[in-house]
Amino acid sequence: MKRIVVLLLLAAAPALAQPKASTNPFLGNPQAVAEGKATYDRYCTACHGPDATAGERAPAIVLSGAGTALRGERSIDQIVAVVRNGIPGTGMPAWGTRISSDDILKLGAYVNALRGTAMDNPLPGDPAHGEQVFWGKGQCGTCHMINGRGGVTGPDLSNIAAVRKTTAIVNALTKVEHRVFGDGGVHLPAIPPMDYDPVQVVTKDGRTIDGVMRNQDHWSVQFIGMDGTFHSFDRDELTSVTIRPGSIMPTDYDKRLSPDEFRDLLAFLTRQGHKQTADAQ
Ligand code: HEC
Ligand code: HEC
What's the predicted TM-score (pTM) here? Predict the structure, then answer.
């Protein structure tokens, strides 16, 4: 008897995580979100830009930062109505005659996914296989820690899905500087700057050490060497400190990994988090 109660609670949990009272049956359904994205990419990107964060001909539908909402943001049901009926007298067409009713609802599920952090709408795939790719072929663990295991030359990813949007995670793996550069020179920020600038330090006793910068002031420099060791020097012990722009992290994982490996890695990362401790990072 007890077991049945527990199962019922588990079954109810995903529904509780959804935003209040939408009639959209596709919210939070990874497959529907993926289909909504495909429809979006086909019909909407040209005006609203990639991931609905604004293009040259239409405004943003979502903001790219986690936990941020547009001022006067429409509910998902209102978004669906706008897509169906258009906005008369503006450049926003009505799509109700061109896109099926279900596909418009799936567009709503996709916009909903773009608004939450990754955990609210994890990507489809096999997370267990994705975890193997993380520690294996992807070699992510040489730089990143998850739940106490792994390297320290990159940020800890234990809670990544609770603090970042799916698009930010995908961009981290695929875009130089982890950012999307929109058409026409629009610079769309994806994730806040992270303090892991590549640095090369030369000491007065002739050693050259490469690593990532963690902290510096007038008198001292602290950084993590590529081998994961923490270094702290007074500036007068050093001949030079050279900080390079960019990142030590490769950004072509969509090419280094097979499509299946890449999909499953994202399925793993977008489930990697603990909502309750989201602000502990
Ligand atoms: C030809 C360009 C164009 C295309 C294609 C287009 N839109 Fe729009 N859309 C606009 C413009 C322009 C506006 C702003 C209208 C206004 O001035 O209020 C808009 C507004 C919107 C809004 C309202 C935003 C808000 O809350 O104020 C939503 C939602 C939206 N579009 C969704 C979509 C979706 C989904 C698609 C793809 C099916 C799409 N649009 C395709 C031009 C376009
Ligand atoms: C050579 C070290 C290195 C490797 C290998 C590496 N990363 Fe990174 N990663 C970093 C650093 C450093 C950052 C911090 C931002 C920056 O400087 O690029 C970062 C940033 C990220 C972010 C964004 C974190 C945030 O807070 O938004 C994600 C997600 C990520 N990495 C995932 C991965 C995954 C998954 C792999 C393996 C496929 C991987 N990384 C491989 C060093 C690495």
Answer: 0.72
The model's pLDDT over 93-103, given as tens digits with 9 standing for 90+, comes to: 999 999 999 99
Domain range for 233? 198-243
Phi, psi at 278, each rounded to 5°: -55, -35
Paired tokens of 31? 């497959």
My answer on whether 202 and 233 are in the same domain is yes
CB-based burial of residue 217 (10 Å sphere; 0-12 exposed, 13-18 middle, 19+ buried)? Answer: exposed
Conformation bin of residue 200: beta by default, left when phi > 0, alpha when psi is -120 to 50: beta
pLDDT-derived band at 122, boundaries 50, 70, 90: confident
Ligand 1 probe mutation, 40, 48, 73, most atoms within 8 A of CB: 48
Residue nearest to atom 7 of ligand 2 (CA): 249
Best CA proximity match to 129, nearest among 121, 120, 138: 138
